[in-house]
Design goal:
Rossmann fold, five-stranded mixed sheet, 19 helices, GMP Synthetase, Chain A, domain 3
Length: 555
């Protein structure tokens, strides 16, 4: 039997009682002002909202949706839903109206909280008129059935509701790189197991500070920020907007930070926009001055207090990890899925093996199938997909192992290395299979490339589609274009030199478009949507394959 773990609400009640006036959530309110909420403040507001929800007399275990960007009341509303005996269903804050409608209908939502949003008019069409809406304090302009102020008129509940460990706590809809998102069901036991074990790995405590900026509806931010802060007593700071992000980061001076690879790349590109890459790399290489320069860069970013820096959700180029190491910051990789509460593998400080993610987290069992698929089993494995028993049976084996869909291998010490996605592998016209992810990782190490997608299904050889970084775009539009072109040609030669013959790229294609969440090329967690990219450019693949240039600029 696994060692004991604690459930989220039990831990929250203890902090509420033992540290009522300790700072918990710090929310920017505009104009440089912030609102600081203590554990007592959060508990009081959640308890008032829970009383109001109970008075609705909904069936126990009703599904209540939450649509908002990250903010203090996202977490408070989540706690209130649980205290009232219901199930929270968070949605990404940048979905289309059509996807909003799909998720709300599929999840059977009985109510929906509406909070901080950039395009509520565009999303609101997905909320049916008969679904009651409740506006959170930072809600967008619009008409709502109830307000957070209405809920706060209720007296706070006096009891400490304690749902059972196996009770459904939340349904997390995947960001969906293809098709309709699936509703991943997690119990309080799943959340408690993963958070108890995960926070112990890094020794997080009440003196630590977090900055919440990745979507809280995503499993990584949900676990690393919301639940980890409850279990450890960390203070959570929120980002106000993209325009104020650096100010928000410096205000928080986080001691722990989780980021996807693109975020860590954007930090790097921001530095390079102020000091040329070659000059900075030269300075960092100097014996004594290098450490001072690295520290100064981290101070400028607001990352100088970091002691735990994690990267996950997608592979991260090794050159990027080495760059941060030169600055004096060890960015560690983690691996997990929504279906496993994000709890699977981790690289711990001092145990980094280049090219490998790390070892299994405590009490995670791993096996590699004959197909090369990585399979994991632990107390964090989901209950299943909501209303999708067939997909659940396809994903969880009879003996409880989760099929990740990732191909990988283990070394003698148990370190994991991913070698591609089973479903992303394509076959060229020569009948050879190619895994795009490892090739993309090599190309992404170039300092002027921000995003890459390798395609080749039915082609005689793969193509590498690239989006330049901001600095790369500057070079491409100025006198440095010839040098950039030559650098990309060299990159292609170097990458092809380490690939098997059937994997070698025919050429690189530099596309003019931006791949973003807003135009549908990226998921809300910044993963490329291969089907969208192939649909956008597929008609030109054959033409590009037949061109003579080694590096082709989209015309």
């Amino acid at each position: 039997m696994p060692a004991a773990f604690r459930l989220p609400l039990d831990v929250f009640y203890e902090r509420e009682a033992c540290h009522p006036r300790q700072r918990f959530l710090v929310q920017p309110t505009g104009g440089g002002q912030v609102e600081t909420l203590t554990w007592e403040d959060v508990g009081h507001q959640a308890r008032c909202a829970a009383h109001w929800l109970r008075a609705r007399e909904l069936p126990q275990g009703s599904h209540i949706a939450l649509i908002s960007k990250n903010c203090a009341h996202w977490i408070i509303a989540d706690l209130a839903i649980w205290m009232a005996g219901h199930v929270s269903v968070p949605l990404y804050p940048n979905l289309t109206a059509e996807t909003v409608a799909q998720v709300l209908e599929h999840s059977e939502a009985a109510l929906v909280f509406i909070g901080k949003l950039d395009d509520w008019p565009g999303m609101s069409r997905g909320v049916s008129a008969d679904l009651p809406t409740i506006s959170l304090p930072l809600h967008p302009p619009g008409t709502f059935d109830f307000s957070w102020a209405d809920l706060q008129k209720s007296s706070p509940i006096q009891d400490d509701p304690k749902p059972s460990a196996d009770q459904l706590a939340t349904i997390i809809y995947t960001s969906g790189t293809t098709g309709m998102p699936k509703g991943v069901m997690h119990s309080f036991a799943n959340l408690g197991f993963a958070t108890t074990r995960g926070t112990q790995l890094f020794g997080l405590n009440e003196s630590d500070r977090l900055l919440s900026y990745l979507p809280l509806c995503h499993v990584a931010e949900r676990m690393f920020v919301e639940l980890a802060s409850i279990y450890t007593g960390q203070t959570v700071f929120f980002a106000e907007s993209l325009d104020t992000f650096l100010t928000d980061l410096r205000r928080a001076r986080p001691t722990a930070l989780f980021g996807v690879p693109r975020i860590w790349t954007k930090f790097q590109m921001g530095v390079y926009s102020k000091i040329p890459a070659k000059r900075l790399d030269f300075l960092l290489g100097l014996p004594i001055i290098g450490k001072r320069v690295g520290h100064k860069v981290l101070v400028g970013l607001g990352l100088d207090a970091l002691r735990i820096a994690l990267s996950g959700a997608a592979p991260v180029p090794q050159t990027l990890l080495l760059w941060y190491r030169k600055l004096g910051l060890d960015v560690l990789e983690v691996y997990g899925m929504t279906e496993s509460c994000g709890y699977s593998h981790v690289c711990l400080p001092g145990q980094n093996k280049p090219g490998w993610i790390g070892k299994p987290c405590p009490e995670v069992e791993v096996r590699i199938a004959e197909s090369g698929e990585v399979m994991v089993r632990s107390g964090a494995t989901m209950l299943g997909y909501f209303k999708e028993p067939e997909k659940t049976a396809e994903t969880i084996t009879e003996d409880g192992f989760l099929r990740t869909g990732d191909k990988g291998e283990e070394d003698a010490e148990g370190n994991l290395r991913l070698t591609g996605r089973l479903k992303e592998i394509f076959k060229t016209s020569k009948g050879k299979y190619v895994a795009p992810a490892p090739i993309e990782n090599r190309l992404a190490e170039h300092s002027r490339i921000e995003q890459v997608c390798v395609v080749g299904d039915g082609l005689s050889a793969p193509l590498g589609l690239c989006v330049l970084s901001a600095v790369g775009q500057q070079d491409a539009s100025g006198t440095a274009r010839a040098g950039l072109h030559s650098s990309l040609e060299k990159l292609l030669e170097e990458v092809n030199g380490v690939l098997d013959k059937h994997e070698r790229l025919r050429r690189l294609v530099v596309v003019k478009d931006s791949w973003a969440v807003e135009n549908g090329f990226l998921t809300p967690t910044l993963k490329i949507k291969r089907n969208v990219i192939e649909a956008a450019y597929g008609a030109r693949f054959e033409e590009w394959s037949e061109r003579s240039e080694v590096v082709l600029w989209q015309d």
